[in-house]
Every structure is written in C-alpha cells, then in structure tokens.
Amino acid sequence: MKVLLINPPSLNQISDAHPKIVETERGHYPPLGLLYIAGYLLKNSKHDVYVIDAQVDKLSYSQLGDRVREIKPDVVGITAMTFTLLDVLETVRLVKSISAYIKVVLGGPHVHIYPEETIQLPGVDFVVLGEGEITFAELLEVVDFPDRLGGLRGIVFRNNGSVTNTGPRPFIEDLDSLPYPARHLTNYKKYNSILAKRSLPTTTMFTSRGCPFVCKFCDRPHLGKTFRYRSALNVVDEMETCVRMGIQEFLIYDDTFTVNRQRVLDICDEIIRQKLDISWDARAHINTISEDMLDKMRDAGCTGIHYGVESGTERLLKLLNKGIKKQHVKEVFGWTKQRGIATLAYFMVGLPTETKEDIYETFRVIRELDPDYLHLTVFIPYPATQLYKEGLAQGIIKKDYWKEFAKEPRKDFTPPYWAEVFTKEELDLMIAEGYKSFYLRPKYLLKSFLGLKSISELRRKVKAGYSLISWQ
User: Fold this and answer.
1) Is the sign of the CA dihedral 11, 13, 15, 17 positive or negative?
2) Is the pTM of this model over 0.85?
3) Are 336 and 258 in contact (CB under 8 A)?
C-alpha cells in the first residue's frame, strides 16, 4: 500500500494573534507529527511511505496535485490544527478530485477536540484521536475491511450514515519505543529558523510529551497532562543521527523541556560525552530553572531558552495560573544572560480584565528583562481551554465560535479576542507599539549587531528588521 503524508500549503491560514511578520520571517520547521508516523510505518510495516511538505517546498495547489498524481497513494494522512483547517480541507478536496478511492485520514489537536464535527466534513474518511503512530499503523491494516473498524480504538468514522467514535486509546508510555522521525523523507536541508546561530539546516525535536502545568490559556488534550519523557541516551542518539545528516542546530519543541531536572542534566552529560558539536534551544518554565542546570545546558551547547512570562503584572499572572512571580522571572533572566544563553520571552496583551495601565506595565517589564527576542501576541481564548470556557459562561464570548468553525470552516472567520475592555483594532495597535518600542531601541539594535555569529544570521535579521519597520 502507498501511504502519503502531507503538510499542506499555508495559503489560507485564518487570521490569528500573530503579526504577519512573525509568521513570514520565523522560518520553516519540519512537520514532526507526520515524520514520527512515517518513521513508525517504515519500521513496523511494509507500506511504501512518502511525505510532502508543501510549505518548505513552496508548492502551489496545482504543483501539489502533480506530486499526488505521480505518487498515486492509496491512503493520505494530514495533520489538522484549527488555524490550518482551511488548507487541510483544500488539500482533502484536491486529493479526492484526483481519485475518490483514496482514503483520507486526519489527525492532530483540532480533530481530537472536534472529532464528530471533523468526520462530517466533505472528503474526510477517518479521524485519528490522540497520538497517531500506533493507531494510524493499525488503521492501515483494516482500512479496507469496514467490519473490523469498530474493534480499533482511537478512530472516528462514518458507518451507514451514523458516526462511530471508538474512543481515545491510552497514551504511549514508552516514548523510547518510537522510531525517530523520518526526516530523510523531506527536503530537510531547507528547514531554517530566524533564531538559528549557524547556517542551514535546522530541525526540531520532541524529547517529551505532556505538560504538567495548569495555565488557563493553554490546553493540549491530545497529549495529556502527564509528563512522559524519553531517556537521555535516546534523545542524544537522535541528535547524533541528525549530525550525520548535516544538521547541527536543534529547537527542542517540548512544551517544557526542563520539568525533570535530573533528565536535563543527563541529556547534557550525554551530549558532552558524545562530543557533539551542536547548538540547541529549548522551552522552559521559570520555576524549573536553577543556576547549575543553566551551567550544564550552556556547556552542552544550549544557545537559547524560551520563557513563557505572558504578563508583567502579578494580578494577571495569578489569573492565568502561571504560578510565577515577577522577581523570580527577573532573577532567572539574569542567570540565563550571565551564562551567555539567549532568551526569548513570550508575552500577551488583551487578557481578561487587563487595562491599558496593565499593558504598559507589561511593556515596561519587557524592557527591564531585555530578552534577546520578544514574541508578543494578542490573547485569543483557544478551544478547550479554561479561559475559553469561562468566557462562554460569562457571556463575554457570545457563542461557541470554535465549534461553529469546526462544523463549517470559512475563510472570513476571525478568532474571538477577549472583547471585555479593548476592541480588536485597539489591541492590534498595542501589539505594533509593543514590538516597535522593544525592537527599535538603539540599545537593542546595537546589542543585536554586536552579537551576530554569521553572515546568514545577519541576512535573516536584516530581512526581519526591514519587515518590522515597514509594518503598519
């Protein structure tokens, strides 16, 4: 059987909270979810497996169609996120126009939240719930036998006009048992990041799944709240495999890499033991960081840490269930900088009950922390999150926008902001002001210039800087 996994073009992404320059200049990351499935199939089945990343290859729908016709797949798998749903469905239509006999399977966070709505969309044959590797492989074995589908946990399908949902299966506990993502099935040398310190290529990695923290603005139900992690040797052996492919720069894409202190130290020790010449970034929670951990991470090639701070006021940090204090945030940023590790700070504006004074306090805190990179967005209450549920219950969110969009995706859809204090237009202006007041400071410009590591980094930053100056 020929199995084709597609990362669709990004031509119809619905408007979100990110300024366009953030999306267009950040680079391209590999579709790790699809590559994990591909790797699992290559090891555990005899199917012919293909991957098309239409984004990194910059394919039009016409060009994507040519590639699909050339491969002639029996089954097509696509990962669906809410913001990419329009392009996912355009890809589904394209595949079905080539052959109505191709089975189309959707997975990912969106379909896990809205399985019944997704299976009713035109052209969708199956939905895979939760983690997809094992379920998708088992589905391929019964995809042509309708009477056996009901015995497979973790799928949703139509059956004689009704919808059958077999329910989610348990999470994968032994993550070391999963093969590495099949990066070689993509044009992996094209992947890049504006944060990269070296020349191409760059890649992403997952070393764990599940986030134990309870922030009210975030939810990842398809991965769960239990922190499951890979062993240090398994993680570093994947890095070594990538190095042999010519990849030396990594973004560890875990929700929170630093949950288990000893595991972080073990990973760093293993990188040092294997003498890997690599650079890597990771996401970390403020409360999980210590100075000795930072020392070890630096020694193992860590060049950047991404911290979610979100707000500059204690009141709003408490409202968000962040569990952090401003003074400790300042200390952790200071420790990180002292070790020459770059910092990226995530912040939001337009939070529930937030005032203009709160926003300007956040901008002041941002300048005080002086991170190397700032990621500033307007708060959007995402589906299944606690704040979205509270907004509906309080009547601030007038209707279940996300569920309606899941049922009937349309190009004019605009995600709901928290329309309690500010209008969308006011918040967009605040975002523009926040970015420019941070990135266009003489102090920041001089620091960025003096910190350049390569000509390629200079080119990326000049391009992004020009876009910022031209924005609005």
Assistant:
1) negative
2) yes
3) no
